[in-house]
């Protein structure tokens, strides 16, 4: 059997990691014998990336069939241009490949190319959180799914952006060759964890780091590293050299959460990841530091993050 052909469509100002992460997954999988053949095509022979590195690409497309994959990596787009940077011929190739039974995928703003080709109409999709409103308005016949890593709908697969392209392509390797194959590739790439598509784009660690208070960041560093441990307020205060009262005031002002609530969020998020990969709720609860599953169940049932208190 011939290998699965993966065709990356490169556009001006393509993001290196949008391209390199997925390409690394498939080439590493091929090194292990899982059978992938990677091609890079563009509408010009040289494409300059968003990071300034010039890339060479093929003008002629390889022959592809229903078992092959087209991937459109994202490009630099603080705001999307009125017209996606792919021409009519490329849009037609995307449509024809899907109509013939093939799969088409995108990373980040690459979803705009799929939308311009008509492939998002009537389907669910996602993109980078900074672009969701814009693409939802641009493609009203599609259904945007916010704050997830990737969405698969009728052989049209869209991902959030940048690093999430790795999660998407590891998922495709798992579908084609099994979870063991995807885990083998992830280990070789030193990927910390293979995430499911419905996991949040931003972890709790990142969502509550959008402040400029150095002391609060230092406290978060301690909690991030030891979230599964029993952390006393007095221990935290001693590590950063302030009183318990000062620590609580500064941390709550900076993050909107008490230190305890922040630690709980980290525990629940990690537990959700474990449960999503087949761990029982009881085992997940103990792994992240709860004595039993009752507290985890109670915290999981909360649909919003409450104000600190």
The CATH superfamily of the largest domain is: Class I glutamine amidotransferase (GATase) domain
Low-pLDDT windows of residues: 303-309
CATH fold-level topology of the largest domain = Rossmann fold
Shape summary: elongated
Number of helices: 13
Helix- and strand-based class?
Answer: alpha/beta
Q: Proportion of β residues? A: 5-15%
What's the architecture of the largest domain, going by CATH? 3-Layer(aba) Sandwich
The strand line-up of the biggest sheet is 2-1-5-6-10-9
Average pLDDT, rounded to a whole number, is 87
Query: Which percent range fits the helix content?
Result: 40-55%
Largest sheet: 6 strands, mixed
Could you state the order of secondary-structure elements as H and E?
Answer: EHEEEEHEHEHEEEHHHHHHHHH
Number of self-contained structural domains: 2
CATH top level assignment of the largest domain? Alpha Beta
N- to C-terminal distance: 61 Å
- Estimated radius of gyration: 22 Å
Organism: Kribbella rubisoli
GO molecular function: DNA-binding transcription factor activity; sequence-specific DNA binding
Keywords: Transcription, Transcription regulation
Protein name: AraC family transcriptional regulator with amidase-like domain
């Amino acid at each position: 059997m011939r290998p699965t052909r993966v065709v990356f469509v490169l556009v001006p100002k393509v993001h290196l990691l949008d391209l390199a992460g997925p390409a690394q997954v498939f080439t590493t999988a091929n090194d292990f014998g899982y059978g992938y053949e990677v091609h890079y095509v563009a509408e010009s022979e040289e494409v300059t990336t968003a990071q300034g590195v010039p890339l060479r690409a093929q003008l002629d497309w390889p022959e592809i069939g229903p078992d092959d994959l087209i991937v459109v990596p994202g490009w630099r787009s603080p705001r999307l241009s009125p017209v996606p940077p792919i021409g009519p011929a490329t849009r037609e190739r995307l449509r024809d490949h899907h109509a013939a039974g093939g799969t088409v995928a995108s990373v980040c703003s690459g979803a705009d190319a799929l939308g311009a080709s008509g492939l998002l109409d009537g389907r669910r999709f996602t993109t980078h959180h900074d672009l969701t409103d814009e693409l939802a308005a641009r493609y009203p016949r599609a259904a945007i799914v916010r704050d997830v890593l990737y969405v698969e709908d009728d052989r049209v697969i869209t991902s959030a952006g940048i690093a999430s392209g790795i999660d998407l392509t590891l998922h495709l390797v798992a579908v084609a060759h099994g979870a063991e194959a995807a885990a083998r590739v992830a280990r070789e790439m030193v990927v910390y964890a293979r995430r499911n598509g419905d996991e949040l784009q931003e972890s709790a660690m990142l969502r509550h780091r959008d402040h400029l208070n150095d002391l609060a960041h230092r406290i978060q560093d301690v909690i991030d590293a030891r979230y599964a441990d029993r952390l006393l307020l007095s221990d935290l205060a001693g590590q950063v050299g302030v009183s318990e009262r000062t620590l609580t005031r500064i941390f709550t002002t900076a993050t909107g959460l008490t230190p305890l609530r922040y630690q709980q969020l980290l525990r629940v998020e990690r537990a959700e990841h474990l449960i999503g990969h087949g761990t029982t709720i009881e085992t997940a609860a103990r792994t992240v530091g709860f004595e039993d599953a009752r507290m985890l169940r109670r915290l999981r049932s909360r649909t919003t993050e409450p104000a600190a208190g």
